[in-house]
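Below is how a single chain appears once it has passed through the pipeline. First comes the sequence as given, then the structure the pipeline wrote out for it. We keep one example in the README because the format questions we get most often are answered faster by looking than by reading.
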Amino acid sequence: MRSVEADAELSRRIIEELRARDALKTQFLSNISHDLRTPLAAIITHAEILREGMLGELNVRQRDSVSGIVNGGQQLLDMIDEILTYVRGEGDQIALTRTPFSITELVDQVCVLNQPLATKRGLTCERIGGEEMPAVYADRDKLKHVLGNLIGNAIKFTPDGGRIWIIVSRRGAGGEDLLVEVGDTGRGIAPDHHELVFREFAQVDSSPSRPHHGTGLGLAIARRFVELHGGHIWVESELGKGSRFYFTVPLVPAP
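Resulting structure:
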């Protein structure tokens, strides 16, 4: 029979091998994402040059076709960026860069960025409240990512002619937390899938024929960013009754 020391040594070696494989996987994902991003960005840039007529005027059908290349390329670029962000998080390479800023101005900015798609779908998108909110001392880019993901998902999963809203308020007995709600009149999420949507690579509808595609990392990254701030993110939803995503961030005073 093997000794206890031999079993312990074997276990240690297995653990070290698994850690080494995980590190190699993380490095591979980082390298391949960088290698894919560079030529894809070049494709988008050249397609935009064609679309803007810098090399000669295009007819309507040609311009629409080139716009399809730009839009499809941008979607792929966004997915690669999500993978890169996830890999950095797995490698504990994400840190907060806190600055004071207006959360209402940030919400309005993200709404403006998403307005063309919302208008195309006939959706209304409005912010409610937040005018008296003090400056938030947090990582602006990471909260922008969280808002962009939640608002983008609301637009993606809300039928044409629906409504999307963002409510900014304070939470807690002393109002010590920022509370943001992103709600929609979309198809909703079954209660048994509420935790699933925040898991890495998870898709509520994972069939090849699903109407919306993605990496399944958006909400997982959003949760990581919120929790880095010491906050919490969750969803309240029922099928056919829309969804309301909430996240909190402690209102840390600026130094």
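The mean pLDDT is 83.

See the next section for the split statistics.
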